[in-house]
Queue: 4 jobs
Job 1
Amino acid sequence: MQKINIANHFISKRSPVFIIAEAGVNHNGSLDMALQLVNAAADAGADAVKFQTFKAEEVVTAAGKIADYQKKNLGIAQSQLDMLKKLELPEKYYQAIIARCKKRNIIFLSTPHGGFASVDFLQRLDVAAFKLGSGDLTNLPLLAYAARFKKPMILGTGMATLSEVKKAVRCIKKTGNNQLVILHATTSYPCSERDVNLRAMQSLMKTADVLVGYSDHTLGVHVPIMAVTLGACVIEKHLTLNTTLPGPDHSASLQADEFKNMVQAIRQVPIILGSTVKEPTKSEKITLKQARKSLVSVTAIQAGETFTSENLGIKRPGTGLAPNYYFKVLGKKAKRTVQPGVLISTKDYGR
């Protein structure tokens, strides 16, 4: 069975779901907001909190335009470069953020959004795993570069075809690094429910030969919970301090109380799914005798009288002869007198 270890948190098909609070760029360039996001993620019960590591010039040229969803969420048209400059997390902030993560017992992660330089920076910080965003799924040189550090890899697959996903998986495995989880995702913020396509996640499970999770961009919490019921071993979801804050991702994120509710619901999923064995539960075994029925005398039945459909009935409780004895008893002679409302036993009838 495939299993990977991120900072002593095991990820597998049978392990508790690994939940990542995607702080992303929702810190708006503020250290105080970044620290508050760490606290909110820890309070919600997430396993990890993830940021994005980049310098704007390492990500995009001056000609790059923002996506339509970013234009809508920001309310203004601007270049990607201008937008990203405001969302950089200065390197001097990282030690404080990592220290807060350690204090709150939550794993620090960050996406090396700025390419090779960001991978090197995060490697120097000894990050527990590399999480690569969907935009870099076809950036095979970057995937191979990060994979060679032999750390666990988490890779978003938004915007990708199955063929592109397989190429990315092969690229990473070719380095000898088999510690990989891929995340089904739809790169739209917020994502319409008609574009979620959770069955595509199941296709990845059947064909990609790696662990599969889900990165959610829908509004609300029901879709990631559904993903867990379908077998997602990792859930990633955006977290914000307030959905009304300015920025490209806040409006498609969960606030702290909503994120906590999602985590609690996800933790209940394996309990609810329970066992594949169909048998009475412990609580049902107590109820069973009260809820099931037995053979019972409807009228007084004299010794030697024949059991008939008029004097023999089926009623609760289920502590006597089971109903499947009904046709076996019909036509038999009563061996002794039975009063009305009495549960029939094998001692009450003869051959």
Note: The chain has two domains: 13-273, 282-348.
Job 2
Amino acid sequence: MTIENTEELVLNMGPQHPSMHGLFRMVVNLEGETVTKIEPKIGYLHRGMEKLAESRTYAQFIPYTDRLDYLASPHNNWAYVQTVEKLMGVEIPERAEYLRVIFGELARIASHQVCIASTALDMAGWSAWSYAFRDRERICDMYEMTAGSRLTVNIMRIGGIMEPPAEFWPALKSFLDDTPEMIDEYNGIFFGNEIAQGRLKSVGILSKELAENLSITGPVLRASGVNYDVRKAEPYSIYDRFDFNVPVRYGCDSYDRTIIRLDEIVESIKIIKQAVRDIPEGPIMAKVPKVIKPPVGEVYHRVENPKGELGFYIVSDGTTKPARVRIRPATFINLQMLPIVSLGWKIQDVVAIFATLDAVLGEVDK
């Protein structure tokens, strides 16, 4: 039966909608259940982060970076303090570099676990959600041992990092020992599930060409067949010392954008094991002045955040506060794909497509 003269429906999703992953809203135009247009609406979480940075000292701004991608706080700390260190020409002690890599990769694992869990949950996969969150709690425990907090973890310092307590190392070893079983469980309960595969495979195609043209980065880009990772393309810290692969998938669909996070968890585990094996004794802080006044100049530094490329641009006028700070957040850039790849899909498919972006609105609105 053909239905003629149908009226287009305009549906408001968010900012309170449970599948919006934060204060994100999109206006969806529908014909029946088929999406004809999506208009993202951002800005509900805007906190003026860049201007806050310009009214704080260099050290005072570190805790604010926790609130960008709040699912990977240590990585945001790391990107910012490395940018300041680059501006100052500070050399970091060896032990501090290894500790930074360990906590950075733990943050990547924890972030990817949330992505896998939330994608499952957005498709009503309550059991699959609980498995990944259960395992992430162990990383949060290690955060708490070291920094006293579990989400907005303020652990990096300009010139170094906090030293984890003695009980951190057995907890880390236990976690690493259990990861093969965790990965098997994720594959069994979620990625191998025929309903999950039916909802994600061949849905929301982001072609290699479109991903490159939109400047997409991170797992979303690599799931579209592009072998690009800042840790390999422009190695920072001590990543050039580690043997690891950059996972790439070629399906360009929602399934590959999700399962590539599992691939990256495997590689992060490899990096952490090598770092634990090779970490030297020694100091964890470089000799930096108590009052930090970088020389006049400007610098841009980027890292491979769990969501993609995170960059900080800082302009110094020689005072205790930066003259200008600009943040290049991965999620904000990656969000461009949503109105394009969602066209022609059902409204329930859009929920799944959005979940595979792993959007954190603290990073989008900043």
Note: The beta strands are 9-13, 25-31, 34-41, 156-157, 160-161, 297-305, 308-316, 324-328.
Job 3
Amino acid sequence: MRRSRAAMLAAALGAATLAGCSGGSDDAATTAATAPTADGIPVKVFDGDTDRPLADATITAFGPDGRTTVPKGTVEVPDDTIRVRVTAPGYTVGAATAGQDRGPFVVRVYRPALQSPEYGGGPERTRYVPAVKLAPPKTGAKPKWTFDGRTLIEFPPAVKNGLVVFGVNSGRVFALDALTGKVRWAKRQKSYIASTPAIAGPRVYVTSMDGMLSAYRTSDGHRTFQFSTGGSPVESSPLIVDDLAYFGTWKGTLYAVDLRTGKEKWTFQAAADIKASAVKAGDRIVVGDYAGNVYALNPRTGARIWTASVGKRFYGGPGFSDGTIVIGDVGGAVIALDAATGREKWRHSTGGQYVYASPAIADGTVYIGEYGGRFLALSLATGRVKWTFDAGGRISGSATVVGDTVYTSVLSRPGEPKHTFGLKTSNGAVVFRKDDGRYSPAVAAGDTLFLVGTRRLYAYPGTP
């Protein structure tokens, strides 16, 4: 016989005298529930990155007469439940709403520490997500999926909460399911894309060479706003800090756009083109220009805090770690600056070899390649060379550190073989090799390594 909602809530209140209420102000009114009944609706909770069942979760059921908390694990909720809310330590909050078929509630939750939602992994652009500790794929290992973008993938994807988003040179933006590689949605810009999108809140932000910042809903790709720079091309990947997006243009303007309104908050005019991405360095925004200047700005107003004229031409953006800004100079150097003052800390000369790449910074080491084919591991504190690796070809793209491996790719000439290398961070020994790649080679999130080929994206499973 079906139990009434009132009877179920009464039983829940009785159980509460034994189990007590859940902690936190948001759940102060929730109570523990009785064991599942035959009349309930199943709730299935998964770790979204691994697709494995998650037992250590608290499920709150919302119905017409109130809410109640059910035991941990894969359970059932009362049959008149309208919505469920799921919490678990170290995970995002998940929710699901009942469908017309009254089928199971399926909820996926994600660990924020394992996501890579923008270029460089996060606003400091270190190209290193410390909590992701994946071993390199074994020789000959097959990816769990491969996606063909049909044209050049110049910049790596952003990955957050099961969504993989990237642009290609044809101007298409792809949003893929991280577990399966299937397209969730795709959009086309009027011009090609030479940057990494950013995923923040319910939106994806994409810059493109037609001078646009476009905002798309993560759920379905619906465009919510588009901001125009007046046609000046944008290679700068958007930097998202709080409610503002920062990006530069070829005319040397750094924009701060309010994400709530889609309108300009402020602009800063540099001395030359800004092709690099900006970085959050403590309480300031830092960016370089094509005249060899590095600027530190107030993030809310755009007021200049300091300028350091230390290079010849900055194409790759800076990275920030431990109070230090590191940037590669096309003039042939890797330069470290004090983030507070702009004072030069050290300079490593590459003997005139261009440095187009942005640095990867992990555990006190800077990893960066130069155009002559030499890959460098430098001390963040002093600039001392720890080890070098001869990649056998030009290096233009930025490296990425995943666990104990740093990945770099060769910018091969027509007819030359393509190579992506995984190097041991301690000594530069080769631990992985793939015959594909061109620019920035990798992003890791959850338990997946996403390798970027010339036009293909490969997803290799790992163990976090």
Note: The radius of gyration is 24 Å.
Job 4
Amino acid sequence: MSSYSKIIKKRRITDMNEGIFRNLMEYIPESIQGYTTSGIVFYWNKASERIYGYTAEEAIGKNLEDLIIPADLKPLFKVCLESGKKVKKSGEFMPAGELKLLHKEGHLVPVYSIHSAVYIDGKEPLLFCIDVDLSEQKRTEERLKQIKDELERSNLELRQFAYGVAHDLLNPLNIIAGCIHLFEQRYKGNLDSNFDDLLGYAVNEFKRIKSFVEDLLAYAQIEMMNKDFKPADISSALEKAVFNLQHAIEESDAVVTNDTLPVIMADEIQMVRLLQNFISNAIKYRTEKPPEVHISAERGIDEWIISIRDNGIGIDTGYSEQIFIMFQRLNRRTIHPGSGLGLTICRKIVEQHGGRIWVKSEPGKGSIFYFAIPDRHQ
């Protein structure tokens, strides 16, 4: 092949590559503008027309500052031009970031803008700007924020409703409790056995409903808990929890022990309720052996991890998440009565403290419940 043929072939390849490059520049979805260090536009692709409203004929030859730079960004644009003059080689990047630039019709367009420089023939560099249109992303973010706000408002209304209903139900339930107690005193054993059976059924169902309402009220109260946490002695909280459960502990011959427990930043009343629920569960879901419950603590990197170990019936690992969900029960109510809210309340208390909760257990080998509370003393 002659030298002339080689030159012709090289030019054809160069022309072809340039054509591919131009097509790529024209049809990619990002806006690309080429401009001089004085701000005069010499290139304006189709995406720039779509994003900013100006045709290439309208934009080329104009100063970019007069087209799309709003008043508050004009000083920054001048800095960009000055930076461009100081670029030493092609490909160096200049200021980049999220901006709001002007559309032809006057509204602002959110973009992520990247500026670079290209040297041709050793002269003053030509500047290029690539703008990624963030309009759709911003609309999505705004819609998600609206949905989040609506959900939070709905959840607040639902919590207030649940609190109000539970609170208002307690008074009539207490009146019914008094009536049932009078029935038991006056008529139990004085009428036929069917009446005694029905009375016993009514008493048990009433206790279940009252327990459910009380737990629902407790859950709603946690949502409205004051998060201005103060130093709470977990040892003191445990003593109060044990005192509240004294009857159940004595009745079941339970033994509750503990290691040294820390002082953490928390709501002490909720810590009492949390420990009380764990110990109550250990007593409720016991084996034929007397319940043994041991509470200990371990210092993590930035949190305190409290563990509650028991020798109860245990939990299949497949249900380690389900047990914390509202109204989820793994055992029949006739065997283990309750509202199904105990561990849900535990999870909510821990979450309101910015912590986490989990369990390790095997059927027949007891359970270890863990909850971690951030160490806010740091």
Note: The longest strand covers residues 108-118.
